[in-house]
Amino acid sequence: MKNPFVILLACVILAATARAQERTEVKVTSKIEKVTVYFKGAQIGRKGGFSATKGNKYLFRIEGIEPGIVLTSLQIKSPDGISINQIGNEVKYTALENHDSEIEAINKELEKLKFNLEDKNDQIALINVQRAMLDENRNISSTQSGMTVEAWKNGVAYYEEKTSELKLKQRKLEREALVIQTEIQSGMDRLGKITGTAKKQTIDLLVEATCEKTISNGNFLVSYIVPDATWKPKYDLKMKGLDRPLELDVKAEINQSTGSDWKDVDLILTSEDPFTSSEKPELIMWDPLKGYRPSAIRRSTVAPQTGTGKLFGYIKDGSSYEAIPFANVLLKDGDEVVTAVSTDFEGKYTMNDVPAGTNYTLYVSCVGFSPKEREYISVRADQSVQADVVMTANVQLEQVMITTEKSKLASRGRYAAVQSNDGQIGSIKGSRDGATNTYIDSVRIRGTYNAATIAQKTTRIQYEVKSTRSIPSDKEKHTVQLDALDIVASFKHYSAPVELNKAFLISKVVGWEEYNLLDGLVALHVDGTYIGESTLHAGRVADTLVLSLGTDTKVLVNRTKLKEFSKKTVLGGKKIQERSYKLSLKNTRSEAIKAIVQDQIPVSSDKEVEVELLESGNAKLNKETGVLEWEVEIPAGQTWETTFTFSVKYPNEMRVYID
Known about the structure:
alpha+beta; 15-stranded mixed beta sheet; 6-stranded mixed beta sheet; 3 helices
């Protein structure tokens, strides 16, 4: 007989072992506190609180993680006393708010629009029939015998009047139909946006861990990369006077569709790209008999979203809402074509095994229709996504007829400085108590504006936005002010009256490459007027950046041919033609200007043709190009004038062109 005490002891040990192996599941609600946005993608930093008891095993469920997470980038930091054993993940689908009433309203609106479109198309078809009948009657009348001239004239007049009336009516209907087509497309886009987000996908991170000491107020720090975010620099450049510095506002345009709103987060913008390999390329053997040189191997340390999904949809004619067969459908990631297919007889296209990702662009083209793009297409792994496109015929409406056929950039503020790669601090001068301007390496900073700290890291430029910001997940563009600089620049006007009677305002900035700016669009404003956009190639310019600020309407330019000094004579079998021109620039600005004025005289490639500059007007002559150049300074309200004269001597039998 077995000893009861031994049996009891064994049961106690087994029970204790079983309890020790049990895991307690704890839900952890995390909040996004910090976001680092790359040109493509973003690193999310979350913080989630929990409590745990010593000796227990836990399954911590960190909820609400974005579905596009790059799992290879995941990092979880736990407090002392928590030993992480394993990390997993689980996909969850959460039903969103009920949109039935909104969907019903949009469908009713679409139904009404389609009825109106059909009505317009019916009226257009009727007009086409009427015009065809008029054409037929005209042909019959013209072949009838015995018709008087008066009757024939009346018939022609009626035909022209009626045809003109029908054409005007048809054009009006076609314009109205085009407006309705646009409204239908807008409604379909709204409907697709609602139905495409009827369920929200999130990921729970499952952290298996052992608690080695009791924790009452612990936090998990979670960071990872998602691809569904972008940012790009933008600039506003303002010239408010030739005696004042250029004002440069540095901005960031941010777009994110990660699935989570960024509410009151610490925001960092960087030029780094986590999806580009940081490893050196490895060259592969190149055999000239096997084609072109093979591309090198580049390994990426962070992979984008893994897995593939399916994209499908219908391509339809906006005027009739009928299917468009054999349309070409391309899916693009930036400028790269991911895949391309054609629609079937029902206007349907299907793209299988599309790499999971966001910000795809759908490009559709078909003969007889204007190409159409649909942006911000997202494809998730193991899911099917529908994206329909309505196209517009590209036939010109008025022709429709019935026929049978680089100092370092410092942070804003009086006491700001930037540390360079060698650890040195840029010089700060001109600051004093109560001052509102600071000079940092010759760059005057306006006021005490301090939107972001800008630093140049070893391989990137990074902006740390000072105050917390909120960026919703809505695919919209959100602008954040980063900095505002006053940059000392020199200004000159440039004019070539021989080509155009206008003066262009040119700005030169020295040491531009040291400002640590990034490539981006620049909106140009001169004297309070927006004049257009230019592109700043910050990483490719020399020490001096030259910017054209457009034409200056306050400088009046004129070039006049002086007839009394322009003549044609014959001497010894040769002709001599002289031309004389007067140039003038009037400065109506309130300050003096410096200007470079250019004109030119002919340069002969034939020794039989002789060109001579008779009067230069104090210009410098480039003998190789024939360009005349004046460097002048014109006081405020004054006019500069000069004249130049040249002659061309050539044989009688030749023809020359000097005007």
